[in-house]
Amino acid sequence: MFYRSSGRIFDGGKDGDMKQKSRISLTMFDLLKGVVILLVIHRHTFVYVEEYTSAAARLPGRMLLTLLMPCLFMVSGYWLGRRKIKTGIKSSIHSLLKPYLIVNIVIVGIAFVHRALLHRMKDWVDHFFIGAVLGRFDLGRIGAVWFLAALFVANFIYYIVINLLKEKGQAAAACLCAAAGALLLPLRLPFLISQGLIAFFYVYAGYFFKKKKLLEKEIPPGVYLAITVLWVAGSVSGRMDLALYKMENGLLVIPGCLCGGFLLIRIFLRLNVLEWKILDPIRWMGRYSLWILCIHTVEDEIFLPWKILFRFFPRETVLGAWFHFILRCVLIVVSCRIMLLLRQRSSGKRRGV
């Protein structure tokens, strides 16, 4: 007997036990992506508060935050298939590079008008234009959409590797790219090449999970324990922050994040079975995570008048940070809703409705 619920299948055994069976669904990662995007916004808001906390107090949060980008890379890789190189790269340009460029054009354009009015064009060139042209997070204000550029580089490599190499060669290429990216990261290469090399390792892992059905198979407790130990060992002994070009003890951190990300994905796939209405807004944010990421980057980098808020609630305080976080989420959700409404109206006009 099969019970269907929100795109998931449950198999009822002879004893009436409900054993979960995963099924490929476009919404299977929505809850995970929603939580990740919320944590990204939270991180960018509370970074000033964290400066006043001890290293020991920051460790649990750091262990979790280190997993966020690898998880998103793995989820993205899960949906990749075997396409021809030209077709795959063309698709990645449309879905990743296009929104990345649009966000950068908006930020650089608004900054140009602002700096021109203040007669500070050198500041615009140094802090906006150069960084945007070179794809350098440290030289510009490309913000959270660095992820899209790094994912594009990863996809570019993926389609070449998947078409030219067999399975063992693909896995070897993924490991070599991760090692090369870790070594090159301190050089701060343009166009997020180093981040893209590391991202390919996780993108290929996501593809491998799907190919081997590792998210559906039962995992022995001993394997869970080993994976957890590797994740904790990597998180405690080192650090990885791709946006800030930081890598400490990469030989442990990179595979450790792979293990931790795998655990986190499996946990959220189980949580996704829960049909609690309270989780629906988070799933909605996951469904439109790309849009939210782009809107968040714009509001973060062009400095909307949050300074007015900071006069009453300093951002270095917990209260100020929470006010900032809530207002940010409201602004982002409202902006996303408006964009959806405009898109629906535009689609209706094209259909002649």
How are the SSEs placed, and which strands pair?
Elements: E1 2-5, E2 8-12, E3 18-21, H1 30-50, H2 55-78, H3 85-117, H4 121-134, H5 146-164, H6 167-184, H7 193-212, H8 221-237, E4 239-241, E5 246-248, H9 250-271, H10 280-287, H11 289-301, H12 306-312, H13 318-350
Antiparallel strand pairs: 1-2, 2-3, 4-5
Helix pairs in contact: 1-2, 1-10, 1-11, 1-13, 2-7, 2-9, 3-4, 3-5, 3-11, 5-7, 6-7, 8-9, 11-13
Explain what you see.
Helix 1 crosses helix 10 (280-287). The chain has 353 residues and is mainly α. A hairpin with a 4-residue loop joins strand 4 and strand 5. The strands form two sheets. The protein has a three-stranded antiparallel sheet, with no helix packed on it. It has 13 helices and five strands.
Total number of helices: 13
What overall geometry do the principal axes of the alpha carbons give?
Answer: globular
Mean pLDDT, as a whole number?
85
Portion in beta strands: 5-15%
> Share of helix among residues?
over 70%
Low-confidence stretches: 1-23
End-to-end C-alpha gap: 43 Å
Number of distinct beta strands: 5
Using the CA coordinates, give the radius of gyration.
21 Å
Structural class: mainly alpha
Order of strands, widest sheet: 1-2-3
The string of secondary-structure elements, in order, is EEEHHHHHHHHEEHHHHH
Short structural summary:
By secondary structure, the protein is mainly alpha-helical. It is 71% helix and 5% strand.
Features:
5 strands; three-stranded antiparallel sheet; disordered N terminus; 13 helices; 353 residues; single chain; mainly alpha
